[in-house]
Design brief:
alpha/beta; Rossmann fold; seven-stranded parallel sheet; 10 helices; 51% helix; binds NADP nicotinamide-adenine-dinucleotide phosphate
């Protein structure tokens, strides 16, 4: 609520499933006016039925992003409290097996569309008493994992862009946070498997054996590892980033993120490489 008792507007991208859906529903319960984005008619209708305002957003399509910017600014009268950039997907595949267009698509969604939406909504975030920008990154934005080059690169880039924007906005009313989840229950692995099967000619690759192992790991979404957390863990950090007067620049979520972020800070690079190769081979 604002000082005037009005409900605050927030935008959450990628609300059709997983983390974005959970964030949207929780913010709605916390009395926010939620504009939730999705892609399919079915998902848009379902979000409406849940009481949210839904908008169609395809991040890879610049025209779609522009349209959402227009819709959001009209809906919230140019006074937006928060933008939660959550939508993204993972493109698995060894770096040497990724085609240029596959890498471009990964960046189009995870970085370029997110950047365009953010810049387009910044004027609305700067209105009022102080808006919040929350970018959902990943532990794979902090350390690299084998077979995840495209996704790693897109999240490392998101980290760089977000850190820079936070510095540039330091004397504006907008506060910027990154959230770094480790493994979380969602459709992420199922969707990553789809992207892998669609875009990687894995049978011809020298990594074919590794791919067999990795795809069975992805296919086992219903049997997550003991370290896999619930989307509610991410929601908790989002609420802090929205409600605290001093939101943190980075929020770690799940034990793997705490451990790997600490290893990155403390271990010599060669030791870190050895650890990450081992972890990659365990998938
Ligand atoms: N789950 C994890 O283990 C994990 C770990 C670290 C970070 N993350 C991050 O958490 C965020 C949410 O992922 P999730 O785990 O909730 O996965 P998810 O269940 O697959 O949800 C991803 C959301 O992004 C949307 N999306 C995908 N491609 C899009 C595009 N081209 N344009 C617009 N929207 C698009 C999806 O829409 P559709 O349903 O239409 O595809 C869906 O709503 C992502 O940023 C991800 O990188 C997840």
């Amino acid at each position: 609520m604002t000082a005037m008792g009005q409900q605050r507007w927030v935008v959450v991208t990628g609300a059709s499933s997983g983390i974005g859906r959970e964030i949207s529903l929780s913010l709605y319960q916390h009395n926010y006016r939620v504009i939730a984005t999705a892609r399919s008619d079915e998902d848009l209708a379902q979000l409406q039925r849940l009481g949210l305002t839904s908008c169609r957003l395809e991040l890879a399509d610049a025209a779609s992003v522009s349209q959402v910017i227009e819709q959001v600014t009209t809906l919230c009268g140019n006074d937006l409290y928060a933008l939660i950039n959550n939508a993204a997907y993972g493109q698995p595949g060894a770096v040497e097996d990724i085609r240029r267009d596959t890498l471009e698509q990964q960046f189009a969604v995870n970085l370029f569309g997110t950047h365009q939406l953010t810049v387009g909504l910044l004027p609305a975030l700067k209105q009022g008493q102080g808006g919040r920008l929350v970018n959902i990154s990943s532990v794979l934005g902090l350390v690299a994992f084998p077979w995840q080059g495209a996704y790693n690169a897109s999240k490392f880039a998101l980290e760089g862009l977000t850190d820079t924007l936070r510095l540039e906005l330091h004397n504006s009313p907008v506060k910027v946070s990154l959230i770094e989840p480790g493994p979380i229950r969602s459709q992420f692995r199922h969707n990553a498997l789809g992207a892998f099967e669609k875009d990687i000619a894995w049978q011809d690759s020298r990594h074919a054996e590794d791919y067999r192992r990795i795809t069975s790991y992805y296919a086992a979404t219903e049997h997550p590892t003991p370290f896999t957390g619930s989307p509610a863990l991410v929601v908790k950090r989002v609420l802090h980033a929205l409600h605290s007067t001093r939101p943190q620049p980075r929020y770690y979520v799940t034990l793997p993120t705490y451990v790997l972020a600490t290893c990155r800070r403390l271990l010599p690079w060669r030791w870190l490489d050895r650890l990450l190769v081992k972890l990659g081979a365990m998938r």
